[in-house]
Write a structure and sequence with these properties.
about 150 residues; alpha+beta; 5-stranded mixed sheet
């Protein structure tokens, strides 16, 4: 079994919305063979809580506007470290970069086929690592200045 056309359509719109809000490391997996509760997962991350919320809001808005889809469940809003949107056909996980590294959902789903995403979404791969390196360099510079 593979993800349905509807799931693929939802994933594509959600991935583009996440990319538009500068999400990092957007990836989607077809989990239909291993899970009966959904067809696909979309994973994305951001370096701060405010951006996580912004990405989730944009995904929700675009899925509603373009496809008339509303999530049946939204979890994790309170601290915006990991927000989950459940659309039944797909589940969207938007995580703070630290949670993304810690929970490493990619490791769980690496044996599942990846779903092809829009170019803008593919271009986000590696952004979290780039951002972390940039921050480390800035902190090292600041450390040097303070000494």
């Amino acid at each position: 079994m593979t993800a349905t056309d509807r799931s693929t359509e939802l994933i594509t719109v959600a991935a583009q919305a996440a990319a538009d809000k500068l999400a990092h490391d957007i990836i989607a997996y077809d989990v239909s063979d291993v899970l009966s509760i959904t067809d696909a997962f979309l994973l994305a991350s951001a370096p701060n809580d405010r951006q996580v919320k912004s990405i989730v809001d944009e995904i929700e808005e675009q899925l509603s506007k373009q496809l008339g889809a509303k999530p049946v469940r939204r979890e994790g809003d309170r601290d915006a470290r990991w927000i989950l949107l459940d659309y039944v056909d797909i589940v969207v996980h938007v995580q703070h970069s630290e949670e993304r590294v810690f929970y490493a959902l990619e490791r769980l789903w690496k044996d599942c086929p990846e779903i092809d995403l829009p170019e803008e979404a593919k271009a986000t791969r590696g952004k979290a690592a780039e951002h972390a390196e940039q921050r480390a360099a800035e902190e090292a510079d600041l450390d040097g200045e303070l000494r």
